[in-house]
Amino acid sequence: MQLIDRMPHWMKKIILVALVPAFVLMGYFALRFLFPRPVEDIRGDAQLMVTVLTDGNEPLGNIEVDVGRQPGPPPVGGVARTDGRGVATFSVKPGQYAVYFNTIGFPANLVPPVAVTTVDVAGGAPTETMVIVQARPMETGSRASRPGEFGNGQQYLLYNTDDFEVKYPHWPNVDRSALPEPERTKVAVSNEGCTFIINTDSLPQGMTFKEYTESRLREQTGNANIRMTVQDIGEKNARLEGDMAVGTVTVKSATYAFLTGNGQYYGIGFAAPSAPFEGVCRPLILEVLESVRVR
Residue 91: which region, alpha, beta or left (left: phi > 0; alpha: psi -120 to 50)? Predict the structure, then answer.
Protein backbone atom coordinates (compact mmCIF):
# COMPACT_ATOMS: atom_id res chain seq x y z
CA MET A 1 0.00 0.00 0.00
CA GLN A 2 3.00 2.33 -0.31
CA LEU A 3 1.42 4.09 -3.28
CA ILE A 4 -1.59 4.97 -1.16
CA ASP A 5 0.54 6.11 1.78
CA ARG A 6 2.22 8.76 -0.35
CA MET A 7 -1.07 10.28 -1.52
CA PRO A 8 -2.87 13.25 0.05
CA HIS A 9 -5.77 12.45 2.38
CA TRP A 10 -8.48 13.30 -0.14
CA MET A 11 -6.93 10.94 -2.66
CA LYS A 12 -6.96 8.13 -0.09
CA LYS A 13 -10.67 8.74 0.44
CA ILE A 14 -11.27 8.41 -3.29
CA ILE A 15 -9.41 5.11 -3.25
CA LEU A 16 -11.60 3.83 -0.43
CA VAL A 17 -14.74 4.49 -2.47
CA ALA A 18 -13.74 1.83 -4.94
CA LEU A 19 -12.21 -0.71 -2.58
CA VAL A 20 -15.47 -2.61 -2.13
CA PRO A 21 -15.60 -5.52 -2.22
CA ALA A 22 -12.09 -6.60 -1.31
CA PHE A 23 -10.57 -7.25 -4.69
CA VAL A 24 -12.14 -4.64 -6.95
CA LEU A 25 -9.12 -2.40 -6.41
CA MET A 26 -10.08 0.55 -8.57
CA GLY A 27 -8.87 3.37 -6.44
CA TYR A 28 -5.43 3.93 -7.86
CA PHE A 29 -6.76 3.75 -11.41
CA ALA A 30 -9.47 6.20 -10.41
CA LEU A 31 -6.78 8.56 -9.26
CA ARG A 32 -5.04 8.44 -12.61
CA PHE A 33 -7.92 8.00 -15.04
CA LEU A 34 -11.23 9.02 -13.47
CA PHE A 35 -11.19 11.56 -10.74
CA PRO A 36 -10.14 15.16 -10.21
CA ARG A 37 -6.45 15.80 -10.79
CA PRO A 38 -4.46 18.74 -12.09
CA VAL A 39 -5.59 19.34 -15.66
CA GLU A 40 -2.69 19.29 -18.09
CA ASP A 41 -2.47 22.05 -20.68
CA ILE A 42 -0.95 20.69 -23.89
CA ARG A 43 -1.46 23.83 -25.99
CA GLY A 44 1.62 24.85 -27.91
CA ASP A 45 3.05 25.77 -31.31
CA ALA A 46 3.44 22.32 -32.87
CA GLN A 47 0.64 21.39 -35.24
CA LEU A 48 -1.08 17.99 -35.33
CA MET A 49 -3.60 17.18 -38.04
CA VAL A 50 -5.82 14.11 -37.63
CA THR A 51 -7.78 13.02 -40.70
CA VAL A 52 -10.83 10.86 -40.05
CA LEU A 53 -12.21 8.85 -42.97
CA THR A 54 -14.77 6.11 -43.44
CA ASP A 55 -13.70 2.71 -44.69
CA GLY A 56 -15.03 3.94 -48.03
CA ASN A 57 -12.45 6.79 -47.99
CA GLU A 58 -15.09 9.47 -47.36
CA PRO A 59 -14.18 12.34 -44.98
CA LEU A 60 -16.13 12.50 -41.70
CA GLY A 61 -17.03 15.99 -40.58
CA ASN A 62 -18.06 17.20 -37.12
CA ILE A 63 -16.46 14.24 -35.29
CA GLU A 64 -14.92 14.95 -31.88
CA VAL A 65 -11.27 13.88 -31.78
CA ASP A 66 -9.34 13.84 -28.51
CA VAL A 67 -5.58 13.83 -27.93
CA GLY A 68 -3.69 13.45 -24.68
CA ARG A 69 -0.79 11.69 -23.04
CA GLN A 70 -3.13 8.73 -22.48
CA PRO A 71 -6.82 7.97 -23.15
CA GLY A 72 -9.23 9.53 -20.69
CA PRO A 73 -10.68 12.97 -20.03
CA PRO A 74 -8.82 15.14 -22.57
CA PRO A 75 -6.45 17.88 -21.40
CA VAL A 76 -6.76 21.57 -22.19
CA GLY A 77 -6.09 21.91 -25.91
CA GLY A 78 -6.85 18.22 -26.49
CA VAL A 79 -10.31 18.45 -28.10
CA ALA A 80 -11.14 19.36 -31.68
CA ARG A 81 -13.81 18.57 -34.27
CA THR A 82 -13.20 17.55 -37.83
CA ASP A 83 -13.98 19.98 -40.60
CA GLY A 84 -15.61 19.25 -43.95
CA ARG A 85 -12.42 17.53 -45.11
CA GLY A 86 -12.46 15.24 -42.07
CA VAL A 87 -9.47 17.00 -40.51
CA ALA A 88 -9.17 17.92 -36.83
CA THR A 89 -6.32 20.35 -36.17
CA PHE A 90 -4.49 20.76 -32.87
CA SER A 91 -1.78 23.19 -31.75
CA VAL A 92 0.13 21.34 -29.03
CA LYS A 93 3.47 21.09 -27.31
CA PRO A 94 5.93 18.69 -28.96
CA GLY A 95 5.69 15.17 -27.56
CA GLN A 96 3.97 11.81 -27.87
CA TYR A 97 0.17 11.77 -27.84
CA ALA A 98 -2.65 9.26 -27.96
CA VAL A 99 -5.45 9.95 -30.46
CA TYR A 100 -8.85 8.66 -29.35
CA PHE A 101 -12.57 9.39 -29.58
CA ASN A 102 -15.46 10.40 -27.34
CA THR A 103 -17.94 7.54 -27.65
CA ILE A 104 -20.69 9.62 -26.05
CA GLY A 105 -22.61 11.18 -28.90
CA PHE A 106 -20.62 9.28 -31.52
CA PRO A 107 -22.70 8.90 -34.72
CA ALA A 108 -24.95 5.85 -34.43
CA ASN A 109 -24.15 4.75 -37.99
CA LEU A 110 -20.44 4.46 -37.20
CA VAL A 111 -18.40 2.11 -35.01
CA PRO A 112 -16.22 4.09 -32.55
CA PRO A 113 -12.56 3.09 -33.03
CA VAL A 114 -11.30 0.91 -30.16
CA ALA A 115 -7.60 1.01 -31.04
CA VAL A 116 -5.68 4.04 -29.80
CA THR A 117 -3.41 5.74 -32.34
CA THR A 118 -0.10 7.00 -30.95
CA VAL A 119 1.71 9.82 -32.70
CA ASP A 120 4.95 11.72 -32.09
CA VAL A 121 4.50 15.45 -32.65
CA ALA A 122 7.54 17.59 -33.39
CA GLY A 123 7.97 21.25 -34.20
CA GLY A 124 8.32 22.56 -37.74
CA ALA A 125 6.11 20.96 -40.39
CA PRO A 126 2.66 19.74 -39.27
CA THR A 127 2.45 16.15 -38.06
CA GLU A 128 -0.30 14.23 -39.84
CA THR A 129 -2.04 10.97 -38.98
CA MET A 130 -5.13 9.20 -40.23
CA VAL A 131 -7.88 7.17 -38.56
CA ILE A 132 -10.30 4.95 -40.47
CA VAL A 133 -13.78 4.59 -38.97
CA GLN A 134 -15.89 1.59 -39.88
CA ALA A 135 -19.48 2.20 -40.96
CA ARG A 136 -22.08 0.25 -39.01
CA PRO A 137 -24.01 -2.11 -41.30
CA MET A 138 -27.58 -1.13 -42.11
CA GLU A 139 -30.15 -2.93 -39.98
CA THR A 140 -33.84 -3.59 -40.27
CA GLY A 141 -36.22 -4.15 -37.39
CA SER A 142 -35.17 -3.88 -33.76
CA ARG A 143 -31.54 -3.63 -32.72
CA ALA A 144 -30.02 -7.00 -31.80
CA SER A 145 -26.57 -7.70 -30.44
CA ARG A 146 -24.17 -9.13 -32.98
CA PRO A 147 -21.40 -11.57 -32.02
CA GLY A 148 -18.68 -9.62 -30.22
CA GLU A 149 -20.93 -6.63 -29.45
CA PHE A 150 -23.07 -5.45 -26.57
CA GLY A 151 -26.59 -4.26 -27.32
CA ASN A 152 -25.44 -0.65 -27.76
CA GLY A 153 -22.92 -1.67 -30.42
CA GLN A 154 -19.81 -1.48 -28.23
CA GLN A 155 -17.39 -4.32 -28.77
CA TYR A 156 -16.60 -6.76 -25.98
CA LEU A 157 -13.93 -9.29 -25.12
CA LEU A 158 -14.36 -12.51 -23.13
CA TYR A 159 -12.51 -13.25 -19.91
CA ASN A 160 -12.69 -17.02 -19.45
CA THR A 161 -11.11 -19.41 -16.93
CA ASP A 162 -11.97 -22.90 -15.74
CA ASP A 163 -14.35 -21.53 -13.10
CA PHE A 164 -15.36 -18.02 -14.20
CA GLU A 165 -16.44 -16.24 -17.36
CA VAL A 166 -17.56 -12.68 -18.15
CA LYS A 167 -17.81 -10.34 -21.12
CA TYR A 168 -16.16 -6.96 -20.66
CA PRO A 169 -15.91 -3.82 -22.81
CA HIS A 170 -13.15 -3.70 -25.39
CA TRP A 171 -11.65 -0.44 -24.13
CA PRO A 172 -8.04 0.76 -23.95
CA ASN A 173 -6.01 -1.00 -21.29
CA VAL A 174 -4.97 0.77 -18.13
CA ASP A 175 -1.18 1.04 -17.82
CA ARG A 176 -0.25 -2.04 -15.80
CA SER A 177 2.66 -0.23 -14.17
CA ALA A 178 -0.02 1.74 -12.32
CA LEU A 179 -1.57 -1.35 -10.74
CA PRO A 180 -0.90 -1.66 -7.00
CA GLU A 181 -1.47 -5.44 -7.14
CA PRO A 182 -1.00 -6.51 -10.77
CA GLU A 183 -0.90 -10.21 -9.89
CA ARG A 184 -4.53 -9.98 -8.73
CA THR A 185 -5.74 -7.72 -11.51
CA LYS A 186 -6.74 -9.74 -14.54
CA VAL A 187 -8.38 -6.95 -16.56
CA ALA A 188 -8.20 -3.16 -16.21
CA VAL A 189 -9.65 -1.02 -19.02
CA SER A 190 -10.82 2.57 -19.19
CA ASN A 191 -12.84 4.71 -21.59
CA GLU A 192 -14.28 8.23 -21.38
CA GLY A 193 -13.91 8.47 -17.62
CA CYS A 194 -15.20 4.97 -16.79
CA THR A 195 -12.91 2.18 -15.59
CA PHE A 196 -13.76 -1.52 -15.55
CA ILE A 197 -11.71 -4.03 -13.57
CA ILE A 198 -11.63 -7.79 -12.92
CA ASN A 199 -9.70 -8.92 -9.84
CA THR A 200 -9.37 -12.30 -8.20
CA ASP A 201 -7.95 -13.98 -5.12
CA SER A 202 -8.41 -17.11 -3.01
CA LEU A 203 -10.90 -17.02 -0.17
CA PRO A 204 -8.98 -17.02 3.14
CA GLN A 205 -9.10 -20.34 4.98
CA GLY A 206 -11.69 -20.49 7.74
CA MET A 207 -13.86 -17.66 6.39
CA THR A 208 -17.04 -17.83 4.39
CA PHE A 209 -17.58 -15.62 1.37
CA LYS A 210 -20.12 -13.54 3.28
CA GLU A 211 -17.90 -13.12 6.34
CA TYR A 212 -14.93 -12.10 4.27
CA THR A 213 -16.84 -9.61 2.13
CA GLU A 214 -18.51 -8.02 5.17
CA SER A 215 -15.15 -7.81 6.96
CA ARG A 216 -13.47 -6.09 4.04
CA LEU A 217 -16.40 -3.77 3.57
CA ARG A 218 -16.20 -2.63 7.21
CA GLU A 219 -12.45 -2.24 6.95
CA GLN A 220 -12.52 -0.14 3.81
CA THR A 221 -15.50 2.07 4.65
CA GLY A 222 -15.05 2.50 8.40
CA ASN A 223 -12.96 5.65 8.18
CA ALA A 224 -14.46 7.22 5.07
CA ASN A 225 -17.60 9.19 4.39
CA ILE A 226 -19.04 6.72 1.91
CA ARG A 227 -22.76 6.39 1.26
CA MET A 228 -23.61 2.81 0.37
CA THR A 229 -26.63 2.84 -1.94
CA VAL A 230 -26.77 -0.93 -2.46
CA GLN A 231 -25.40 -3.55 -0.05
CA ASP A 232 -26.54 -7.07 -0.87
CA ILE A 233 -24.12 -9.75 0.36
CA GLY A 234 -25.13 -13.38 -0.04
CA GLU A 235 -23.42 -16.69 0.55
CA LYS A 236 -21.75 -16.86 -2.87
CA ASN A 237 -22.20 -13.45 -4.49
CA ALA A 238 -22.47 -9.79 -3.57
CA ARG A 239 -23.63 -6.52 -5.08
CA LEU A 240 -22.28 -3.27 -3.66
CA GLU A 241 -22.82 0.25 -4.93
CA GLY A 242 -21.78 3.48 -3.30
CA ASP A 243 -20.97 7.12 -3.87
CA MET A 244 -19.11 9.94 -2.19
CA ALA A 245 -18.83 13.65 -2.84
CA VAL A 246 -15.27 14.82 -3.47
CA GLY A 247 -15.40 18.58 -3.82
CA THR A 248 -18.00 19.22 -6.49
CA VAL A 249 -17.67 15.72 -7.99
CA THR A 250 -19.75 12.69 -6.98
CA VAL A 251 -17.77 9.49 -7.37
CA LYS A 252 -19.83 6.38 -8.06
CA SER A 253 -18.81 2.73 -8.02
CA ALA A 254 -20.64 -0.53 -8.65
CA THR A 255 -18.87 -3.76 -7.73
CA TYR A 256 -19.96 -7.38 -7.84
CA ALA A 257 -18.24 -10.36 -6.24
CA PHE A 258 -18.58 -14.09 -6.86
CA LEU A 259 -17.32 -17.28 -5.23
CA THR A 260 -16.47 -20.14 -7.58
CA GLY A 261 -16.50 -23.86 -6.92
CA ASN A 262 -12.71 -23.77 -6.59
CA GLY A 263 -12.88 -21.24 -3.76
CA GLN A 264 -11.77 -18.35 -5.97
CA TYR A 265 -13.08 -14.88 -5.14
CA TYR A 266 -13.77 -12.84 -8.29
CA GLY A 267 -14.61 -9.15 -8.21
CA ILE A 268 -15.78 -7.14 -11.22
CA GLY A 269 -16.68 -3.49 -11.13
CA PHE A 270 -17.18 -0.11 -12.70
CA ALA A 271 -16.13 3.26 -11.25
CA ALA A 272 -16.45 6.84 -12.50
CA PRO A 273 -17.60 10.33 -11.59
CA SER A 274 -21.38 10.68 -11.76
CA ALA A 275 -21.80 11.87 -15.37
CA PRO A 276 -19.57 9.32 -17.12
CA PHE A 277 -20.82 6.62 -14.75
CA GLU A 278 -24.41 7.09 -15.93
CA GLY A 279 -23.46 7.74 -19.55
CA VAL A 280 -20.66 5.21 -20.10
CA CYS A 281 -20.65 2.65 -17.25
CA ARG A 282 -24.33 2.18 -16.43
CA PRO A 283 -25.55 1.16 -19.93
CA LEU A 284 -23.17 -1.84 -19.89
CA ILE A 285 -23.62 -3.15 -16.35
CA LEU A 286 -26.67 -5.33 -16.96
CA GLU A 287 -25.23 -7.05 -20.03
CA VAL A 288 -21.90 -7.62 -18.30
CA LEU A 289 -23.66 -9.20 -15.31
CA GLU A 290 -25.87 -11.33 -17.54
CA SER A 291 -22.74 -12.74 -19.19
CA VAL A 292 -21.23 -13.96 -15.90
CA ARG A 293 -20.82 -17.72 -15.65
CA VAL A 294 -19.60 -19.17 -12.34
CA ARG A 295 -18.52 -22.79 -12.27
Answer: beta
